[in-house]
Specification:
CATH topology: Rossmann fold
Strand order of the largest sheet: 2-3-6-4-7-8-9-10
Number of domains: 1
Helix content: 25-40%
CATH architecture: 3-Layer(aba) Sandwich
Number of helices: 9
Largest sheet: 8 strands, mixed
Order of helices and strands: HEEEEEHEHEHEHHHEHEH
Shape: globular
Distance between the termini: 67 Å
CATH superfamily: Alpha/Beta hydrolase fold, catalytic domain
Radius of gyration: 18 Å
Length: 272
Amino acid sequence: MRLILFLSILLLSACTQVIFHPVKKHFTIPKEFGITYHDYYFTSYDGLTLHGWYLPTQRERYGTVLFFHGNAQNISTHVGGVYWLTDYGYDVYIIDYRGYGKSDGIATLPGAIADIRKSIEDVVKKIPDTEQLIVMGQSLGASMSTQAVVNSQQQNRIKALILVSAFSDYQSIAREFLDKHWLTWALQWPLSFTINNDYRPLNVIGLISPIPILIMHSKNDEMISYQHAELLFSYANEPKQLIDLDGGHNDWSHYETNRKKLIQYLTELNQP
């Protein structure tokens, strides 16, 4: 009986960690990359204090990127994916959802999506009235961003939505994760149904238009298959682009080829 209970807890824990795996400790700060930064605090819709970093560019300024990270750890382990944008004239905001890093609360799917929506609302107030915000997410942050943008009251202030290594469906990505482990393989279908799929990206990505969508994904992604990118692209309406990345799931920004592709997109986005 104890073994059955232990396995049940372990299986459900594995399924839960498909969505959230927060860490409170910061492992680095942008200063270690030679990047100027400021702590950024804002309040969630339900009164929690949430934390992030603001990385102002030290060059001629071209815009502002608000970045939402993946499911593991916190902004200190994800800032490396976007700090380099400051070298190209972009201010960067990166935030932790509730329960992550210095943000209060406990991570939940509806709560984290609401945190994204509130941060969009908050950062829009910090940029010039004539400027539009570039919303960018990676992995879970990308998938949650689709729901947040669709429900945002600031859509007219969003210049583009950039999805890096996003998944299209919460239950299908749970099954793919569980399929990789011998202990959870046989129960991938029943366990996946414990995941809330009300916020499925495929349900809303078609509603984001006329905001431009850029989907970036690697065919060598070892965590989220390229099929998710193809599905998201097929459900999205114009204007939309799908760009292939080099590398794997977490090292996309290490490749100069990928950085150039993103900067090229941003440059074209800024053209009249």
